């Protein structure tokens, strides 16, 4: 249902997406992950048909995405910048939604709004940041669009409402499967929800794989440097760190045996993604070390 081949997106001369290719053929929940500014929102806008690719092929529900009516009718993009006519109350916004989204679940939207403690008499522009985010997400889920794109939907929500909204997403997806792509920096919170991770890095797809596969990609070796170093040649080393006598190496997983003095620890999915997208330019600790030494 989504086919993206050698997608390139430039803003002026700046290349944001250099060569992005992936396919999604069946309903599932996908986490779109990547560092700030990597191009997640840009990719979602292209999939929704709001932005034109600079190059490459992007098809959604079998049609070229950009400004296509079929794509527009089957896709919804929920993003920070959502605005609704200021004269309308939330009730009025919801009542006209089925005109745009044929499968819009009106009763569900009202129930979720009430559950979230948001009065339908409010106007969208008068809502708090968290309330706006909750309303927008409710609107997106209730639309039941075949392709539902959520760009950092939890931003501004407190932890309790975030927990509730993750449950809403999952329950509604299970009852009405669709392609749901959620971009988020809260990967730890989302990992129980998503099936696959689409990780963007340096303008490309770094990986597109099931969550458990991503988690097993890398492990942490911990011990004394002298005990670990001789074994590092057996691994692809992604990151090393020294903390006093403790030496840590994050390496690509393999089944080779290790001596008892070296401990192997699993990483969280979020940590694996962070390591895979960490620049080779060192860490914040290096900046403080050099400023403390006066360098
Ligand atoms: N309309 C625009 N004109 C010029 N540059 C833009 C425009 N929109 C986005 N960019 C640039 O494109 C890059 C990618 O932006 P985008 O918002 O897609 O990233 P993102 O991965 O969603 O970031 P974040 O995680 O911080 O939300 C950034 O460097 C941004 O400054």
TrEMBL record:
PROSITE patterns to which the protein is assigned, alphabetical: ABC_TRANSPORTER_2
Matching InterPro entries = AAA+_ATPase, ABC_transporter-like_ATP-bd, P-loop_NTPase
Q: Keywords assigned by UniProt?
A: ATP-binding, Nucleotide-binding
**UniProt xrefs under SMART domains:** AAA (SM00382)
Q: Which GO terms describe its molecular function?
A: ATP binding
Q: Does the keyword ATP-binding apply?
A: yes
Superkingdom per UniProt: Bacteria
ABC transporter domain ranges (all copies)? 2-227
Protein name stated in the entry: ABC transporter ATP-binding protein
What organism, scientifically named, is this protein from?
Answer: Solibacillus palustris
């Amino acid at each position: 249902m989504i086919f993206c081949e050698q997608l390139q997106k430039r803003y002026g001369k700046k290349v944001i997406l250099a060569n992005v290719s992936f396919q999604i053929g069946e309903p599932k929940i996908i986490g779109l992950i990547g560092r700030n500014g990597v191009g997640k929102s840009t990719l979602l806008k292209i999939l929704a048909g709001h932005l034109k690719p600079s190059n490459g092929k992007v098809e959604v529900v079998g049609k070229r995405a950009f400004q296509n009516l079929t794509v527009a009718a089957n896709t919804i993009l929920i993003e920070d910048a959502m605005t609704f006519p200021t004269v309308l109350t939330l009730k009025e916004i919801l009542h006209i939604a089925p005109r745009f989204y044929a499968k819009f679940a009106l009763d569900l939207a009202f129930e979720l709004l009430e559950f979230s403690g948001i009065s339908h008499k409010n106007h969208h522009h008068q809502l708090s940041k968290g309330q706006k985010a909750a309303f927008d997400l409710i609107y997106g889920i209730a639309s039941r669009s075949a392709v539902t794109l959520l760009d950092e939907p939890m931003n501004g929500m407190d932890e309790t409402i975030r927990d509730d909204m993750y449950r809403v997403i999952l329950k509604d997806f299970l009852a009405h499967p669709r392609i749901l792509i959620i971009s988020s920096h809260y990967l730890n919170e989302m990992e129980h929800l998503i099936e696959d991770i689409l990780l963007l890095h340096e303008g490309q797809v770094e990986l597109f794989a099931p969550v458990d596969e991503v988690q097993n990609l890398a492990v942490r070796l911990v011990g004394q440097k002298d005990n670990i170093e001789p074994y590092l040649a057996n691994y692809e080393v992604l990151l090393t760190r020294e903390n006093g006598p403790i030496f840590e190496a994050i390496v690509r997983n393999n089944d080779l045996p290790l001596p008892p003095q070296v401990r192997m620890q699993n990483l969280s999915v979020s940590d694996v993604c962070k390591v895979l997208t960490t620049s080779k330019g060192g860490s914040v600790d290096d900046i403080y070390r050099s400023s403390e030494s006066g360098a």
